[in-house]
Specification:
By secondary structure, the chain is mainly α. The protein has 18 helices and no strands.
Length: 375
């Protein structure tokens, strides 16, 4: 029953404004004539350069969205001037693209994804080779469910800057969302090679291995993630799921309990607890009341929009012998389930209608399980 949603990361942080090769604006130059003009009457070209320099000066201190809006407005004034020359236009466009990208990052951090994407679109239009804007637009596409567009954009971000681990990670997330698990593993692996200390990279690759039923590789990745960040509850849940699939029930429950000790309102952990206590083939591990309570708590925390939460509640009711309630919950789950899950949902519904609980058998006998570290 393990699952997760994609986890894209918008690139936040400071910008180096001196790197014109990366698509970020360098300091607009000032000729002796331009400097002298500040004391007297300026030509149209000099006024434009002064406006660009003022926008650049503001960019060195900007932190709030309103400050980036001010920079953008100054540069729009410069770009709208008919007297602007090619050099000034290029400087203004690069700086304006940077400001749009930075404004988009702030909006994304505030959860305003739709308006953030508009800013990233403008940034890329103004500066197609700005890898950070490409990366951010790709992440925004992922969050908007535009996965094919996200992959195209992240491809370009990687071409422009191959050593940025998060670009590989987020492209891996996009492949994961499409069910292209081998491709996701390839990209997660490159992210790990570039940045082996980021725990998230390991457990996301582990989840791809989990879905491919390569459970030991999954467990190894979850182990690595936990070693790097023992206070993150999520990898414990995933590792518990892998243990459950392979018949290591006590270890699975131990991991779920550890996750809840770290994050007491983690609905995903309650769902896994309920599934184990309801469907485990080991009678000693099952518990009617605790299973129902955990399934209800999971729904209370996360809602019932995901069919798997309702399936878990149905399994808990069936385990307790309340098959009418199990049928009702499973019917709702089947109505919500995507097409690929319909046959499995329907099979469980028929099982409950026949007055039988569901029991999940392990993929591999627990007695035959050995870690590669033990071989």
């Amino acid at each position: 029953m393990a699952f997760r949603t994609i986890a894209a990361v918008i690139l936040l942080g400071a910008f180096c404004l001196a790197d014109t090769a990366s698509g970020q604006p360098g300091t607009p130059g000032e000729s002796p004539a331009e400097a002298a003009s500040t004391a007297g009457s300026a030509t149209p070209q000099q006024r434009i350069r002064q406006t660009i320099r003022e926008a650049y000066r503001l960019s060195q201190q900007a932190e709030a969205e309103g400050q980036y809006v001010e920079i953008i407005e100054l540069l729009e004034t410069a770009l709208a001037d008919d007297a602007i020359d090619a050099r000034s236009r290029s400087d203004a466009q690069r700086l304006k693209g940077w400001a749009h990208n930075r404004r988009g990052e702030i909006l994304a951090r505030e959860g305003k994804e739709n308006v953030a994407l508009i800013q990233f679109e403008q940034a890329v239009t103004l500066n197609p080779d700005h890898w950070k804007a490409r990366y951010n637009r790709g992440v925004s596409y992922s969050l908007a469910g535009k996965i094919d567009e996200a992959i195209d954009e992240l491809n370009r971000a990687i071409e422009l800057k191959r050593n940025y681990a998060w670009s590989w990670f987020n492209r891996g997330e996009a492949f994961y969302a499409l069910g292209q698990l081998r491709e996701s593993i390839r990209d997660y692996s490159e992210a790990i090679r570039l940045d082996p200390e980021t725990a998230r990279f390991h457990y996301h690759r582990g989840h791809s291995y989990y879905r491919l039923r390569e459970y030991q590789r999954a467990i190894d990745d979850f182990d690595a993630s936990i070693e790097l960040d023992a206070d993150d509850a999520v990898p414990y849940v995933y590792r518990g799921d892998a243990y459950f699939e392979t018949g290591r029930y006590a270890e699975a429950l131990q991991n779920y309990r550890r996750a809840l000790a770290l994050e007491k309102d983690l609905g995903r952990a309650y769902m896994s607890v309920a599934w184990l206590l309801s469907t485990c083939p080991d009678e000693d591990m099952r518990n009617d009341e605790k299973a129902i309570a955990a399934a209800r708590r999971a729904i209370q925390l996360d809602g019932e929009q995901d069919h798997r939460y309702l399936e878990t509640l149905a399994a808990a009711y069936a385990n307790a012998g309340d098959f009418a309630a199990a049928e009702e919950a499973q019917t709702k789950a089947t109505e919500l389930a995507p097409e690929f899950a319909q046959s499995e949902c329907q099979a469980r519904l028929e099982l409950y209608a026949a007055g039988q609980p569901y029991r999940q058998q392990p993929i591999a006998p627990a007695g035959e399980w050995r870690s590669p570290r033990e071989r």
